[in-house]
Design goal:
This protein is 92% helix and 0% strand. It has 1 helix and no strands. The chain is rod-shaped, with a radius of gyration of 39 Å.
């Protein structure tokens, strides 16, 4: 096999470098695509979490109002019973 000249060796190396550059470019595009897909999924997940928080806050507010009404009724009943007991004791 004959020795390759300097220019031929440089040309061969340049071809290899171009091949690597092509591979790196392809890999970079794939990574960019993956990043965009992941970003879209994260945005979707953020929206779901926000909706869940809003629904949870609405449910908590509803339960808070319900418990507040029950508390008012309970205090009213206790006051009525206390007045009835006091009235019974005074009326003897």
């Amino acid at each position: 096999m004959a020795e390759l000249g300097l220019e031929e060796r440089v040309a061969r190396l340049e071809g290899r470098v171009e091949g690597f550059e092509g591979r790196f470019d392809s890999l970079e595009r794939r990574i960019d695509g993956l990043g965009q897909r992941l970003s879209g999924r994260v945005d979707s997940l953020d929206q779901k979490v926000d909706r869940f928080r809003e629904e949870l806050a609405a449910r908590i507010d509803s339960l808070d109002q319900k418990v507040s009404k029950q508390f008012v009724w309970l205090v009213g009943i206790q006051v009525a019973v206390l007045l009835a007991v006091v009235g019974a004791l005074i009326g003897r």
